[in-house]
Amino acid sequence: MLGVHFAITADQEKALLDADGDDDAVGELLGDIEENWDDDQLKVDTDKAWDEIHRCLTDGSLDPDAGDYPLSHAILGGHGMHDDYYVVYVDAAQVRDVAAALRDIDRAGLRQRFDTLLPASERDYDFELLWTDFADVVNFYQRAAAAGRAVLFTAT
Q1: DSSP readout, 15-77?
Q2: In angstroms, rounded to a whole number, what is the distance separating the alpha carbons of residues 100 and 141?
Q3: pLDDT tens string 62-94
Q4: Which residues neighbour 73 within 8 Å (Cβ) at sequence distance 6 or greater?
Q5: Cross-referenced Pfam families, in alphabetical order (predicted)?
Q6: What is the tally of structural domains in the chain?
Q7: pTM of whole model > 0.90?
Q8: Which of 23, 59, 86, 102 registers the highest number of CB atoms within 10 A of its CB?
Q9: What CA–CA distance (Å, rounded) separates 46 from 51?
Q10: Domain limits for position 33
Q11: Nearest CA to 75 among 93, 102, 42?
């Protein structure tokens, strides 16, 4: 599954919240967002690294309820909006909290989490690639928070 974060507009946020509970409507809105997205500064692709980033920020599992807020909300810990795949909503206030918490994790801190929480047999990425993708997520959350936007994470 490939992961993408979008810092959605107020109109997109309203439409998604109105569609919450209707997988078909949420899927249609997500398709529209993906197809028409035109601001690379308010989007970040994490390819398959989202899995290991979430594990490093929580308890090492893929459980959306794992870990402590706000780090848990960087990838999977927000409000799940689809039953068949990950469509996770984080409101603008939570985005600010996530952005602040992510700023506190440096390279050594992520490396410690990576080494502690992910057995070598479960790693898909080497640390250097993971660090690059993590830094992209941190920078994305800073931009989303500065823009006052909610975030939608998808992995399909």
Answers
A1: HHHHHTT-HHHHHHHHHHHHHH---GGGEEEEETHHHHHHHHHTTSS--TT-S-TTGGGGTTS
A2: 9
A3: 999 999 999 999 999 999 999 999 999 999 999
A4: 90, 94, 97, 98
A5: DUF1877
A6: 1
A7: yes
A8: 102
A9: 9
A10: 3-155
A11: 102
